[in-house]
Amino acid sequence: MSRAATVERRTKETNIRVSLDLDGSGKSTIETPLPFLSHMLEQIARHGLMDLNVNAEGDTDIDGHHTTEDLGIVLGDALRRALGDGFGLRRFGSATLPMDEARAAVSLDLSGRPFFVWQVALPKAKIGTWDSELAEVFFEAVARSARMNLHMTLEAGHNLHHCVEICFKAFARALRAAVELDPRQTGVPSTKGQLD
């Protein structure tokens, strides 16, 4: 059974297409007008071991907000569609990872009920052309659109690039664990018989 999805979203602000295969090998083709965000999406594919193709255009002449948020919306939607009814899913995932002086912890539940907790104190600054505060915007959009419960905590770190990148890597590893199929799971992993 294929666990893949393609989602497109076109507005007056952005034009985005995302293709996602949960059972891929970590390959990605990412084209966005925000180089640092492109680099972070590559982290999700590589460390989540999912194939991800992204083609995004947006009004980055204004700033990166619309493009970042809409990418989160479309990626979350593709994830939800690729998961289908959640049959055989592990459902929960967590990861705590270091990157030099930075360390992030991510826990998530593919519950069908969106909730987002962001305990990541970042200075308002740019990483290349991308505003650091957009990391929160991106992950909140993913959580809401994928209907996941997502908790993210930055436990240590002072280099801004490292702090943001390790959040993306920890998210990828937690997501990789949650989307795996459990050979012992004989149905949907919920006493309700459905995820929501």
Query: In the CATH hierarchy, what is the class?
Result: Alpha Beta
Largest sheet: 4 strands, mixed
Which percent bin holds the helix content? 25-40%
How many H/I helical runs?
4
Output the radius of gyration. 16 Å
Mean pLDDT: 94
> Which second-level CATH architecture applies?
2-Layer Sandwich
Shape: globular
Element string (H = helix, E = strand) = EEEHEHEEEEEHEH
| Weakly predicted, low-confidence segments | none
Number of domains: 1
Number of strands: 10
Instruction: Tell me what portion of residues adopts beta-strand conformation.
Output: 25-35%
Q: Supply the helix-strand structural class.
A: alpha+beta
Enter the CATH topology name.
Answer: Ribosomal Protein S5, domain 2
| Cross-sheet strand order for the largest sheet | 1-2-4-3
Terminal Cα separation, in Å? 22 Å
Description:
The chain is globular. The chain has a 4-stranded mixed sheet with strand order 1-2-4-3, covered by helices on one side. The chain is 34% helix and 31% strand. With 196 residues, the protein is an alpha+beta fold. The protein has a single domain (4-179), classed as Ribosomal Protein S5, domain 2 (2-Layer Sandwich). The chain is built from 4 helices and 10 strands. Helix 2 (65-83) packs parallel to helix 3.
